[in-house]
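Q: What structure does this chain adopt?
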Amino acid sequence: MTGVVPGPAVPAQQQFRTLPGETGIVVHTWKLPIAFGIGTKITVNGYPIPNTKWGANFVPGPPGVHTVAVDATQWGMAYGGNFARVEVFPGRTTEVHYTAPAQIYMKGAVSAERQSAPGLVYTYLALAFVVLMLAAFVALMVV
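A:
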């Protein structure tokens, strides 16, 4: 008998882009431009990477499969954490992209390409609601 073996579906592992260069991982971090006072924290295999910033962060490492976890931080608290398993090849740099969420109760996006900020639609809806309520308040005060 040939064909697909029945059973639970297993999602395929993401394929991260690799470029020729020093062996390691480049973690590109991004946040909304209006998100002031937010930092980033990166760990690889549970070890924190010092001096991380928004933008490109190079983490040297040996070839193999590594777990990259990224969090956004504000006032000493981490939020929006997410992780990915990344394969590093000799003489290659693997690129990982992290986007901080627009809402602190959501996970950030970790992927092979830059994503839009998770929760951005909810932020726009909340902003529209506030503007609508302010307009209604001003209309009631004028009448």
